[in-house]
Write a structure and sequence with these properties.
It is built from eight helices and six strands, in the order E-E-E-H-E-E-H-H-E-H-H-H-H-H. The chain has 291 residues and is an alpha+beta fold. The chain folds into three domains: 7-71 and 126-147, GHMP Kinase, N-terminal domain (Ribosomal Protein S5, domain 2, 2-Layer Sandwich), CATH 3.30.230; 74-123, no CATH class; 150-287. It has a four-stranded mixed beta sheet with strand order 1-2-4-3. The protein has a two-stranded antiparallel ribbon with strand order 5-6. Helix 4 (127-195) runs antiparallel to helix 8.
């Protein structure tokens, strides 16, 4: 099963007091990274949100945006620092005595002094909030996973098309490879006859052909390409994160194609190698977005 790392999900859950909206989007990333943006007073839910998302996402960078609205979510309380107020009061009284002042110290003066009062916000205990929030996260994550699956199916179809193209090129190379040595022998014999009127030394020609055959042998590379292609097909059918393994296999296929191109002294094979490398480049682009 192929999943893309790109997707989007959104969910809104409501009750009589609350309205919670969760949006999440994911993009390519080497690992699984989840960042949650949630109102400060509800940060305690961040780990639970991530656990829900991890049930649907194994790789990619996921950004989560949480908006919580409702009545009575936060209680505002007045906090008075009585000790500090006493310090202010005694200091002002001493100042009056020190400078022979007659100013009266009033409560209104004291309450205006820095640090004496503070408005403290406390979150209310709402048992339904957590359930509503996690339900919204779950639904948004399911939408995200569904979109990633849909895009993954598109990626899979394109990869399969490119694999078919590679298969055709490999078949052409396999058919052409046995004739490369014979063509080389014919060219070598013809060249010798052009350069010298004397009869060609057949044993020397056979030696040169044998050396060429050893250097240009691509049977092992073709076997490895076949093996790698089979592994790619098998990997695409697995129900687990496969992006990294596919990336490795594409690199190996590209390496074998380069070796064939370097060893096989044949224009037709060289053309097929170009076709293989072109298809592999397209697969590589798609693999970068696979979970």
């Amino acid at each position: 099963m192929v999943y893309s790392m790109t997707g989007f999900g959104r969910s809104t859950k409501k009750n009589e007091q609350l309205s919670i909206t969760v949006e999440m989007k994911s993009v390519n990333h080497r690992f699984c990274e989840i960042s949650v943006r949630i109102p400060r007073q509800w940060v305690a839910f961040e780990d639970k949100i991530k656990k829900v998302i991890l049930q649907h996402v194994k790789r990619g960078k996921v950004e989560v945006f949480v908006n919580i609205e409702g009545d009575g979510l936060v209680k505002r309380k007045l906090h008075i620092d009585w000790d500090l107020m006493k310090e202010y009061y005694h200091s002002l009284q001493r100042a009056n005595e020190q400078f022979s002042l007659r100013d009266q110290v009033t409560l209104s003066h004291l309450f205006q002094l820095e640090g004496v009062t503070e408005i403290v916000e406390e979150e209310t205990e709402n048992e339904e909030l957590e359930q509503l929030l996690l339900a919204a996260v779950k639904e948004a994550a399911e939408q995200l996973a569904f979109m990633r699956k849909q895009e993954g199916e598109t990626l899979l179809a394109d990869i399969q098309t490119q694999l078919s193209s590679i298969e055709k090129s490999v078949q052409v190379i396999e058919k052409q490879a046995p004739f490369v040595i014979e063509y080389y022998r014919e060219r070598l014999t013809k060249r010798i006859h052009e350069l010298s009127p004397l009869p060609a030394d057949e044993s020397r020609i056979l030696t040169e052909v044998a050396i060429f055959a050893e250097k240009s042998d691509i049977n092992e590379e073709l076997k490895r390409i076949r093996s790698h292609l089979q592994q790619v097909v098998a990997t695409l059918e697995k129900d687990e994160p496969i992006g990294r393994k596919l990336d490795f296999l594409v690199q190996e296929l590209n390496r074998e194609a380069n070796t064939i191109g370097a060893k096989a002294n044949d224009s037709l094979i060289a053309m097929q190698v170009v076709e293989i490398k072109s298809a592999l480049e397209k697969i590589k682009e798609q693999v970068q977005n696979i979970e």
